[in-house]
Amino acid sequence: MNRSDADLLYEHYGLTCPPQWGTMRDFSRPTYGGKVAKIARVLGTPLMPWQHYCADVALEVDPETGLLAYRGVDITVPRQSGKTSLILAVAVWRAMRRPRQRIVYGAQTGVAAREKWEDEHLPLLDGAALLKGKYRVRKSAAREAILWR
Questions:
Q1: In b/e form, how buried is each residue of 20-51, taking b as 16+ CB within 10 angstroms?
Q2: Residue 138 β-bridge partners
Q3: What is the rounded (10 degree) CA torsion for 125, 129, 131, 133?
Q4: What's the farthest any 2 CA atoms get from each other in the chain?
Q5: Residue-wise DSSP of the chain
Q6: What average pLDDT does the segment 128-135 reach?
Q7: Digit-coded pLDDT (tens) for 86-97
Q8: Rounded distance, CA 16 to CA 13, Å?
Q9: What is the value of pTM for the model shown?
Q10: Which of the two residues, 57 and 100, has the higher pLDDT score?
Q11: Is 22 left (phi over 0), alpha (psi -120 to 50) or beta?
Q12: DSSP readout, 55-81?
């Protein structure tokens, strides 16, 4: 990363410690990252600078095709850094953007995934007034789901 890249990341995201490796944001491409940031605010978990940067890069749009520029995205950060809140905001954005999608959340075990879902995801969704009435929750064992209207 050259000095001008670090300056751009500080100017746009407030990143004082730019990533040491990874895909650099292509500022010539539009991105849905801002929409994910709005959803994160609605959920009560505004994105941290690194999260906003990752969302912007991951959700860049190829202007020629109108499709997302990247088919897959890997993010590696330490424990307790905010991955869950970023993942939830992206999942809500996807669910609201395109109907009838299947978005899967996993963890080390099915029990751990269910606990994260019940203890963290559902309370954030339930606390978001702007999302009231836009989804319903199914809690039957092994068929857990958030069904978006």
A1: eeeeebeeeebbbbebbbebbebbebebbebb
A2: 145
A3: 110
A4: 53
A5: --HHHHHHHHHHH--SS--SSSPPP-TTS-BSHHHHHHHHHHTT-PPPHHHHHHHHHHTBB-TTTSSBS-S-------TTSSHHHHHHHHHHHHHHHSSS-------SSHHHHHHHIIIIIHHHHHT-GGGTTSEEEE-STT--EEEE-
A6: 91
A7: 999 999 999 999
A8: 9
A9: 0.87
A10: 57
A11: left
A12: HHHHTBB-TTTSSBS-S-------TTS
pLDDT reported for residue 3 = 56
C-alpha 139: how far from chain center: 23
pLDDT per position as a tens digit, 50-82: 999 999 999 999 999 999 999 999 988 888 888
How confident is residue 105, by pLDDT bands cut at 50, 70 and 90?
confident
Locus of tokens 């007034």: 129
CA–CA dist 137, 134 (Å, integer): 10
Model confidence at 43: pLDDT above 80: yes
Cβ distance 60 to 29 under 8 Å? yes
Residue type, 116: K
